[in-house]
């Protein structure tokens, strides 16, 4: 900030900065912020000083101290004549505005000064009461916000003082808009309207300069302008610099009181930083943010829209971030908006993603917005963004340099720095501290001071180079303190003292070093409690206690010699002292004798002064009336201009609306035109009527020919049946029930598909029998194979992924995927090419000789028949072939898969009948019955058996689809892993059954403890025993144990040194891990690593688990264990929540355990299911580290992903979204098997740090429990002090997990030396903050 005359040219704009009037030896008054407490403290001080000054005037007139003449507002304003400048912050800006522009407020203070004993009553009646009535807030409504306010203020401002909580509570209860809050306050307590201007005539003649201190927000992470609701995008503005520039910069509105509406600012708005800054207007839709990179000096506002179009100002913005608008129109600025900006202490919420979302949901407007066109236009644009966001609106934001203003307390809450920056060499600082005489907010201006207010940038300080903060602290301790008036409840200290300081170079305030500054401090310390509406009365009591303390005779010496000279340099304390001494020692008569000459002289002087005063007052009143007339005319003209401008804006808005409607109508016209073109094209492709009639005649002739052929067929069938009957009489051979040709004495040998040896020839009877036999054997053998671990092996190995995908599917589908009972002639193959069989067609030629009764399907009301296909009458048997039946069912199956989950959730038969009804109409029912009959007829084949179960609703579509490739996969596995013995690769039934009868014997057996929590505990104990720093640390497992297995677990844990918190429950389940180590394909011998320590295999071993079922935990046992965990949790440094909670418990178990942690403890969660429960646990805010693998975090955040398929870009995107949603999670650890792992750490509210870990390649021997090992060692190294931070702890954990993979042992068991070797081989790369 600078003072002096200067000219800055910005295109066509010429801005002139007027110099301050040179005032030699007069100090500036700095009023510290502090809400209503600051206003009450300032009011009590001014009223008390005015009372003493008035009493001095009475003594100069010769009146006794007992004479009490009422003060008027002119007497009160004499207190401020000492100061050429007033610098106010926050609540003190409310006080200054009402003091300068409200005659009613001056009268209130005069009344308080006249009657100190009635000060509380007067302040309650004249200020508190009108405010409460104007807000209309009832007691229940006010009290209902109390809990929300405490949480809100705690997040924004730390714990927050009581007055901040009080103001926040009242703000939420009175409209959720800071501008509205200040408008109501000023209008109800001082009669200052919302459109009153800074250049208006003050309530008393004065030419002082008023600095309204506030803060300019330049957010590096993006401040919320409009938080979108109902799928509307978020609008933010973001400042980017090439250096570390604070997000808060000090600024001040300034006005020379009484200079008029067209006056300009006498003091620079802010000190411009000497670094390039760019401000971007950003539009966000979910996680999508689009912006362009361009840097220039000063302030450059650029608008960015999702469509790619942008709009930016033609030149950078200097002087006041609005191209000089705020300084050039200082007299036109609304008083209420400048004061609201100075006191907007909630405004920092827009720089928080979470709190801006809360503000949007509450429809709260916590900041003050301004632009080149002023406050009102900026507010109007922001209101429009709540319902409509487009590129034009964003461009308009950039053009007017739209940005936010906050409470001056975010840069300097005392007002001292701004007064010094404006040129003052002596400052009277009025502080309002909490409870005790501490220099907290003053000390931060000096070297070594601590920034007290949360969020205030440390880079802004110091302002002075000497003395240091400790010296300032000592000076405060030696300040002279007044004796507090008897009966005071809230006023605790009133201290007066002086600090001599020397300025330092400070570019942010525009202060140069070497200036000598005298700071006169008045510290008013009070303590106010929180309750209901009675709290407002406490502020009234504070005003009275301050006035009574200043007026107390016990404080006479301090008030006359220390306090009064600060407000009146001509104050003569000797006359005051002489009068009192004379009254005490000489009596009244003696004093009168001594004072008679002086009294006569004073009376003469008084008469002359009275005459001059009356004349000056008359002239002043006349001038004041003329000024009021001029002002009223100007205001009337301004209102007319503003009305015209408003009409112009409305016209522009209406034009934009009509243009939008025209665009929509054009789009509709284009759509209708496209439809008409489509219809025209369709009509041109129609068949001519003559051609249509010819085709109808051809169809009629074809049908007639078909009838003739059917009659010929019936005749042939009759002849054929007669021949068959004759053959039966002659040969005595009955061919009924045989599908082969009956006229040959021996059956024809055919290649039979569906048996495991398709090259062999079998008769139909033999093939059906063998197929049925093999199916039964395979059903039995499948159970046997599952018992040996194939169920788990299919999930962990690439060998058997398709065998046990669905345990209830029908096994053994032929390798070709379909089953045909006999070879077809070329004519039959041609006939079978039709994809959809028609009613009355598609019959096998083998049915031509059947009897009449076999041409009909008998009535079917069996319970096994689906309800939709039961029929009480016989139905024509259309004898569909295998291919036609299979093709039709396959068509319906593919249709359901194309439609997706919505159709797959419905029964298969329901979909089939809907299709038939659409295509066949009345014949659909008969067609469906024939499909069911054909499926039953060929059900000996696994493929048709699975479709039969599908029609009955016994299995699902996925089971049928997976079943069709199962047989071929089993054959492939047998060919690959079972030795034929004769060197051939062909698998016969004999070899197949022989292989199934083999007994698998284990080479080694190990007994250990499993479970995710137990594995993590074992890994943590391994680290504790091996590291010197971690020794004597304890690891405890909370668990349910029962039966003999539970006793074995307890004994094994004691051997490992693991303590436990155990509650007896049901029998603890067992599980068996089967590890099948393959042999080398050449020599059959396993190899080892180069160091000879770890086995290395040609291919990875096959690992599977067989887990016995477990019983749910009883409610009583769950409650008992939870109570023990909650009681013990505060004694631990870290808590691991591993895996899904036991059956019988709920997510509340984890949530309560995490909530019970100590303040400095760390909670790690390693769980991903159930998804919604895990989301609730993370959103509860008690989890510090979330450890998860890449697939799980993608699925948790709604990104479909399979194991091993997540890309690095996808992982980073999902991690950013997770940290944004789970604001309490500090670290997100993501593993991805052998691929790179990541650690995302929350550095600050603006960004995260990403560390990538590249793992060395290691042989995978037994991967079970590796993830648990990572979690256990990560937490142990962090809590035991082995790792310096989470990044190094993650390195320890990954090394431990890799060492576990190389070990054959149970989960959590690893070799420490191997782990340390792998730790050195892991590469950690830290990415830049985002």
From TrEMBL:
What residue stretch is flagged as signal peptide?
1-25
Q: Which residues form a coiled coil?
A: 627-712
Q: Which Gene3D superfamilies match?
A: 3.40.1190.20, Cytosolic phospholipase A2 catalytic domain
Q: Where is the composition biased (Basic and acidic residues)?
A: 821-835
What's the domain of life for this entry? Eukaryota
**Record-annotated Carbohydrate kinase PfkB domain positions:** 1126-1307
UniProt KW keywords: Coiled coil, Signal
Chain positions covered by the region annotation Disordered: 810-844
Tell me yes or no: is Signal among this UniProt entry's keywords: yes
The protein's matches in Pfam families, at most eight in alphabetical order, are given as: PfkB
Against SUPFAM superfamilies, the record matches this protein to: FabD/lysophospholipase-like (SSF52151), Ribokinase-like (SSF53613)
UniProt key word Coiled coil? yes
This chain belongs to the protein called Carbohydrate kinase PfkB domain-containing protein
The species is Durusdinium trenchii
